[in-house]
Design goal:
Elements: H1 3-23, H2 27-39, H3 43-48, H4 52-66, H5 71-76, H6 79-86, E1 93-101, E2 104-111, E3 114-123, E4 126-129, H7 131-134, H8 169-172
Antiparallel strand pairs: 1-2, 2-3, 3-4
Length: 198
């Protein structure tokens, strides 16, 4: 009688282990699911397939990009939805394999004739694409400084008014005061006495 509960315990443990493994896809399967999310343009799934740092970096770049767009276009701009999905061609990406090293992995892909390694990281128990590593470690930083104030406009003289002349080097040079010297008084020769004639 005691053997039955022990067998049930082992079977339950084995079933939990197998189901637990199926519930957490590996790096390759996670990357494939992310590509499907892009194909279907599901922005929530696209975001959830990226590391937190990647989402923050992309959101920061998106905010900076929106600053250059007209207000109506900036309001509609959605990188994770429309922009990322527009140019995606599912047949253009071929997954060749994966390299797993603990909590990090690289997905080997071929895209547009180039072989790439897409970095992934295990975060919150799931494999996520690490675009910050792909972008060379880009991390969100403080917002960019506000643009410099515009330079004052050059005021043009009214039409027909002669343009002022540029100063000559002599006029532009600082005036040097000459030291005034008293003029030398002419030296008078003493008058010679007239010669006496006898």
């Amino acid at each position: 009688m005691k053997r039955i509960p022990a067998i049930l315990f082992v079977a339950a443990f084995a079933a939990t282990a197998v189901l637990g493994c199926k519930g957490t896809p590996g790096p390759k399967a996670s990357f494939e699911a992310w590509l499907q999310a892009i194909e279907k343009c599901e922005s929530a799934r696209i975001k959830s397939g990226l590391t937190k740092e990647s989402v923050a970096a992309i959101e920061q770049m998106t905010t900076q990009l929106k600053a250059f767009l007209p207000p109506d276009k900036a309001k509609e701009f959605d990188f994770f939805g429309d922009q990322l999905c527009k140019g995606f061609k599912p047949d253009a990406v071929t997954i060749k394999g994966e390299e797993v090293d603990g909590e990090s992995a690289r997905i080997l892909v071929s895209a547009e004739g180039k072989d790439e390694k897409i970095p992934m990281k295990k975060q919150d128990g799931a494999w996520k694409i690490d675009f910050t590593a792909l972008m060379g470690g880009a991390k969100p930083s403080s917002p960019p400084p506000p643009p410099a104030p515009p330079k004052p406009a050059k005021v043009e003289p009214p039409a027909g008014t002669p343009a002022p002349e540029a100063p000559t080097p002599e006029a532009a040079a600082p005036a040097v005061k000459a030291e005034a010297k008293p003029a030398a008084a002419p030296v008078e020769k003493p008058a010679e006495a007239p010669a006496k004639t006898e």
